[in-house]
Design a protein that fits this description.
Structural class: alpha+beta
Mean pLDDT: 88
Strand order of the largest sheet: 3-5-6-7-4
Largest sheet: 5 strands, antiparallel
Distance between the termini: 17 Å
Order of helices and strands: EEHEEEEEHHHHHHHHHHHHH
Shape: globular
Low-confidence stretches: 49-57
């Protein structure tokens, strides 16, 4: 019921109430852009004199960088506006040929953006090495032929390179100063090409399965429109123009198995459509509550990063449940069932 939801007050810098609303999503949608602009203006005005959370750290300075030339990078900075003290979160932002140092108001957003920015900085510093990686990437021709209908092959190769950089350079803690950055470069550079080749192997296997499955999927439409819509939606969520950028490596390696499971589902659908329909209902019984939770989490104040991470990970548990329901013969890394995922869902509420 509406009366059970808390009210959110939106106030300006003078303490005046602008809105009173139960729907935080609406407030964020309507005023989020304005709030971010106001915060960024404050950061721009304060950035050279902000106090960091480290007593000996130098004040951070915004700018465009192609090397680690900005000193120690703190986790937080404190800015003042009148009598207000505001916390900010510095992050390196990817601008393709360089990175820029910016301050965010959302720690989760800053963390996500910063990791991408770090990878870009490694790429810029290793410019010649990165070019060689793109030119010499194993399986590049086969990957390109299979991917060309989905998106930019050049962009896909770039995504593979960035994933390789992340795995080579950032498997331990993220660097916060120049010394740590250069040490991670020294450690990661020798294995960069090997890691890129391993990623390319998984990408190629996924695209090969996708090509075969795409042919079979058309036949499924005549067998069951509901199953067809479900499988098509699943396939679009697994393989698309940005899939290498968006799917973490630990899940990328399982994509070929998920695609094989769809192919096996189509084979079984021919002989037992009613069983397929029941399996789909069982899967949806946990998938739909999770989808609602994801939507609700976008508007929840104080939603911690660990909870968001667990929500994202549940998406891959749902893929494993599909394997367990529709293609048991392919096995799953751990026991998987509807009851097991219902318990996980309960812990996320």
């Amino acid at each position: 019921p509406a009366h059970c939801h808390m009210n959110f007050r939106l106030i300006d810098e003078h303490g005046r109430q602008l809105e009173l609303e139960r729907n935080l999503n609406r407030l964020r949608s309507e005023y989020g852009g304005m709030a971010r602009e106001a915060f960024q203006s404050l950061a721009d005005a304060n950035i050279k004199t902000v106090q960091t959370d480290q007593a000996e750290a130098s004040p951070i300075q915004k700018g465009s960088y192609q090397a680690w030339d900005f000193g120690e990078l703190p986790q937080t900075v404190t800015m003042t506006r009148g009598n207000q003290t505001i916390q900010g979160y510095p992050a390196l932002v990817d601008h393709k040929t360089a990175v820029e140092l910016e301050v965010f108001d959302d720690p989760a957003e800053a963390k996500r953006v910063h990791r991408q920015g770090l990878c870009r900085l490694y790429s810029v510093v290793l410019k010649e090495h990165t070019k060689a990686l793109h030119k010499q990437l194993p399986h590049a021709r086969e990957i390109g032929l299979l991917f060309i209908q989905l998106g930019s092959v050049e962009e896909l190769i770039e995504h593979i390179g960035m994933m390789a950089i992340e795995r080579a350079m950032l498997q331990n803690q993220e660097p916060t100063n120049k010394m740590q950055f250069e040490e991670s470069l020294k450690q990661g550079k020798p294995r960069l090409m090997l890691i890129a080749g391993e990623i390319a192997k998984h990408v190629l296997a996924s695209l090969q399965e996708y090509a075969e499955l795409h042919k079979k999927l058309i036949a499924a439409k005549a067998l069951s429109s509901s199953a067809y819509d479900d499988m098509r939606s699943q396939l679009q969520g697994l393989i698309h123009a940005q899939f290498v950028k968006q799917v973490p490596y630990e899940h990328l390696v399982h994509l070929p198995r998920y695609l094989k499971a769809i192919a096996l589902r189509i084979d079984k659908l021919r002989s037992n459509a009613s069983r397929d329909a029941q399996n789909q209902r069982d899967w949806e019984s946990v998938a739909r509550p999770w989808q609602r939770m994801v939507q609700e989490s976008k508007g929840m104040l104080g939603m911690n990063d660990e909870h968001n991470t667990r929500l994202r990970e549940f998406r891959w548990q749902l893929e494993e449940l599909r394997v367990a329901l529709f293609a048991q013969e392919l096995k799953t890394p751990m026991p998987m069932s509807v009851k097991r995922l219902e318990k996980v869902l309960a812990s996320l509420r």
